[in-house]
Amino acid sequence: MSKLDNLFEKNRQWSASVKTSDPDFFRKLAAQQNPEYLWIGCSDSRVPANQIVGLLPGEIFVHRNVANIVVHTDLNCLSVLQFAVDVLRVKHVIVVGHYGCGGIRTAYDGGDNGLIDNWLRNIQDVHHRHRARLDAVQDREERLNLLCELNVMAQVGHVCHTTIVQNAWAREQPVAVHGWVYSLVDGQLKDLECTVDRLEQIPDAYRV
Ligand code: CO
């Protein structure tokens, strides 16, 4: 059985190069982490949070799942969000989708894909809610890109509807929730300009 020696070798090289540029780097980081951002992104291997925004270890707290979905009953995602907001006191929560997302495409195409269909149902909710707008786009790729964007905006809403974010606002702790989308084609991020940072932006029905 392979022991993945290549990965351990790469790790030794990386650790050595970091120590060369900053001998105290790991010692300082081991003492505490103080990230300003929580990144909620897709698990896709082509969308690595730290590299895309050029941040070092310690600078961004990360949660990733298939198609960057925030579900009110997902204890994993909610626990990450609570730790990030209540303990680390991040100032920004960023939901980051990406064009060319396999989760979005699979949800759009439907079919029987096994267990994951239950997860992708959340994207189909978004599709259903915006059906007229999506149907008006002739080109399939553009339609899928729009669904990627609409999904991000829906998940931004879900983050804001949590007790975690609303309780932070109630105690006047600044937390801004942003929606971005990443392009695999050119490596660039786009701000969907749907930032929410106060309770008044939330529909009454979702207020705690
Ligand atoms: Co994806």
Write a compact overview of the structure shown.
With 208 residues, the chain is an alpha/beta fold.
Q: Would you spell out the secondary-structure blueprint of this structure?
A:
Elements: H1 5-21, H2 25-31, E1 37-42, H3 49-53, E2 60-65, H4 75-87, E3 92-98, H5 102-109, H6 116-129, H7 131-135, H8 140-161, H9 163-170, E4 176-182, E5 189-191
Parallel strand pairs: 1-2, 1-3, 3-4
Antiparallel strand pairs: 4-5
Helix pairs in contact: 5-6
Bound molecules: cobalt (II) ion.
How would you characterize this protein structure?
It contains nine helices and five strands. With 208 residues, the chain is of the alpha/beta class. Strands 2-1-3-4-5 form a five-stranded mixed sheet. Helix 5 packs across helix 6. The model has no long low-confidence stretch (mean pLDDT 97). The structure holds cobalt (II) ion (CO). Cobalt (II) ion binds next to helix 5. The site of cobalt (II) ion (CO) has 7 residues, from helix 5.
**Number of E-state strands:** 5
Content of β-strand: 5-15%
In this entry the ligands are: cobalt (II) ion
- Can you write the helix and strand succession as a string? HHEHEHEHHHHHEE
Largest sheet: 5 strands, mixed
Structural class: alpha/beta
Uncertain residue segments: none
